[in-house]
Design goal:
about 675 residues, alpha+beta, Rossmann fold, Methionyl-trna Synthetase, domain 2, Isoleucyl-tRNA Synthetase, Domain 1, 5-stranded antiparallel sheet, 4-stranded parallel sheet, 21 helices, 24 strands, about 40% helix
């Protein structure tokens, strides 16, 4: 960063309190945020780390309804679980609070009032779906129906999870209420909107011209949104769970969760520092950094800054180092299908191994693209890197010192050329690691830290002090002095990454700690300094422990397959005359390609025996386009054309069979027939 700041406010995305935290959350947000904060603290910089639970919104009310409890019961349960898991895992928040707190309700209400009184909102009356049986307006997720694009049943009012299309409730075919099952009606309702289009010009300058140093994925997503043109966004909704809109005549309306949640960073800071919170949010000499996942980029780079700018007294974020997504064993993490590694379960299954997971998640950090976590890789990195490289080097240096010098740092004698070369190799480690951490390149910074252990292992292996002990003990003293200086440097370089292991390492070295400024020095441990007891820093993880985790995932997969399979009931009976209305034909695929920016959609050019046609199908995640060219497929030929938001028009629907694991397979014929042949 070019500008020098006096202090840094670091926030991490507020986890949603309707379930526990999993490794995707850790890799995307909390481990990198904690590394960065620990690094700043080690440098003696002024920094606060703000976290908390996001406790409002529709998913919480849905879960509460499903379980027959109140929304408060849900958030109380998961807030406690998440907070305790973070504490045990070593995520070093200065405060971890919640958005159901009184101070947050007051702060968010006042923020809304300030913008309202300044005329920063616009009011709109629109028609929304209303459930007459339940006597309430329906949030998008409380409305289901048939997707207008891929015609999948059970699409939500905001998105079809089959084809990935973004939807509005009015787009759905045959919508119904998820609460009562009845057909909703449209009723007028008034809401307040933040006119993002009003802020578009300065946002474009601020981001596209002023923050070209942001990560490419962050910068690119912001540019895409700005290029499409910003639209007013509702800041209120009809719901009975949340912060009431503090305006007369707004009964039954609450602040939209996207509006109130980021204000939680401010309210949590108020709770932590009631007398000095403003300097962390309003002083231009304070740097604001948001750690988030890629699904929150727009909210933290466009929407929240627009809110802060409209209020007028707050600083804007200096950087938003968002990560991409972490997959699990080659599949997208799914909380609903229990395809996840939950933090609280990991802490139970691998007690004392917080740093192993921290190390692996950092090594596989999805900093620029989606990445994958596998249990075999987890085991390999622990056994081959933490144990065989880091732990092995530390153990050899400590044990040999205990054996030959009674556990005291030996005197360093005259240096050979190889000694000097080794010392030179880690002389500039501080510059390298610091540069990478300042750029939020945590994966590369950890590699540089591990390189110290590799240097040390190679040095001991080449010098073989155990062979020299009988003939040249002064030479052994020099070798072990150098090795121990390297060990001391490891305790500094790894402190942001592996806090539990470095604390243990400092106890073994018999020191309270070092400053970041000492990293790279070769005189950290004076001759004669007594070392503590040597212990193993890491231990091997056996195949059985890994297989247990793999089996657990497989059990979840099978349970979901079985549940999904059993849940598929035959649809209501239709008359033969109704079935005859469908014109199903055979077509030959002439061309097939991915639809740009629509990762679930494929565009087909079909030979249909007539003039040919284009069909768009949401099967991109199940089929490779090149494998479909030349194949014959079945398609509905007389389906009304459907236009997508990008202008594409689909002239039919390709038939696919859905397996009970959710996989799709295109339906074809046993032998080739002429394009346009009717299916009877």
């Amino acid at each position: 960063m070019d500008k020098k700041f006096k202090r840094t406010t670091v926030t991490s995305a507020l986890p949603y309190a309707n379930g526990p935290v999993h490794i995707g959350h850790l890799a995307g947000v909390y481990v990198p945020a904690d590394i960065y904060v620990r690094y700043l603290r080690l440098k003696k910089e002024e920094v606060i780390f703000i976290g908390g639970s996001d406790e409002h919104g529709v998913p919480i009310t849905i879960r509460a309804r499903e379980e027959g409890v109140t929304p408060q019961d849900i958030v109380d349960r998961y807030h406690s679980l998440i907070k305790e898991s973070f504490e045990e895992f070593g995520i070093s928040f200065d405060i971890y609070s919640r958005t159901s707190s009184e101070i947050h309700h007051d702060t968010a209400s006042q923020f809304f009032k300030t913008l309202y009184e300044k005329g920063e909102f616009i009011e709109k009356t629109t028609e929304q779906y209303y459930d007459e049986e339940a006597r309430q307006f329906l949030a998008d997720r409380y409305i289901t129906g048939e997707c207008p694009y891929c015609h999948a049943e059970g699409a939500y009012g905001d998105q079809c999870e089959k084809c990935g299309s973004s939807l509005s409730p009015t787009d759905l075919i045959n919508p119904k209420s998820a609460i009562s099952g009845s057909k909703p009606v449209r009723r007028e309702t008034k809401h307040w909107y933040l006119p993002l289009d009003k802020h578009e010009a300065w946002l474009r300058r601020w981001i596209l011209e002023g923050h070209k140093e942001w990560r490419p994925n962050v910068y690119g997503q912001c540019k895409s949104w700005l290029d499409l043109g910003l639209q007013p966004r509702a800041v209120s909704r009809d719901l009975d769970w949340g912060i009431p809109v503090p305006v007369e005549g707004a009964e039954g309306k609450v602040l939209y969760v996207w509006f109130d949640a980021p204000i939680g960073y401010i309210s949590n800071t108020k709770e932590l520092l009631p007398d000095s919170w403003e300097k962390w949010w309003k002083d231009p000499e304070t740097r604001l950094v948001h750690f988030i996942g890629k699904d929150n980029i727009v909210f933290h780079c466009i929407v929240f800054p627009a809110m802060l700018k409209a209020e007028g007294s707050y600083i804007l974020p200096d950087n938003v180092p968002a990560n991409e997504f972490l997959n699990l064993e080659g599949r997208k993490i799914s909380t609903s299908k229990n395809w996840a590694v939950w933090l609280h379960e990991y802490l139970q299954d691998f007690p004392g191994k917080q740093d192993v997971l921290r190390y692996v998640l950092t090594a596989n950090a999805p900093e620029t693209k989606d990445n994958d976590f596998t249990w075999k890789d987890f085991q390999a990195r622990n056994n081959n890197e933490l144990v065989a490289v880091f732990g092995n080097f530390v153990n050899r240096a400590m044990v040999l010192t205990q054996k030959y010098f009674e556990g005291k740092v030996p005197v360093c004698g005259s240096l050979t050329g190889y000694d000097q070369d080794t010392l030179q190799e880690f002389a500039d480690v501080k510059v390298r690691v610091e540069s990478l951490l300042d750029q939020f390149k945590f994966r590369d910074a950890q590699k540089e830290a591990m390189n110290l252990a590799r240097i040390g292992n190679k040095y001991l292996a080449d010098m073989e002090p155990w062979k020299l002990a009988k003939t040249d003990l002064p030479r052994v003293a020099t070798i072990l002095n150098i090795a121990l200086q390297l060990v001391a440097n490891l305790s500094i370089a790894f402190e942001p990454f592996l806090p539990f292991s470095t604390a243990k390492l400092r106890r073994m070295l018999g020191v309270d700690g070092f400053d970041w400024e000492q990293l790279g020095r070769t005189d950290l441990l004076p001759a004669g300094h007594p070392l503590g007891k040597a212990e193993l820093l890491f231990e091997k993880i056996d195949d059985e422990a890994i297989q247990t985790q793999i089996d657990k995932l497989e059990a979840s997969k099978k349970a979901n397959e079985t549940a999904s399979y059993r849940a598929k009931e035959v649809k209501p009976i239709v008359l033969f005359e109704d079935f005859e209305k469908l014109d199903i034909r055979v077509g030959t695929v002439l061309e097939c390609e991915q639809v740009p920016k629509m990762k679930k959609l494929l565009k087909f050019k079909i030979a249909d025996g007539l003039d040919g046609r284009t069909i768009v199908s949401g099967i991109a995640q199940h089929c490779k386009p090149e494998e479909l060219v030349g194949r014959q497929v079945l398609f509905v030929a007389n389906l009304a054309p459907r236009q997508f938001k990008n202008g594409l028009v689909s002239e039919g629907m390709i038939l696919s069979a859905e397996d009970f694991d959710g996989g799709l397979s295109v339906v074809t014929t046993m032998r080739e027939v002429k394009p346009g042949s009717e299916v009877k």
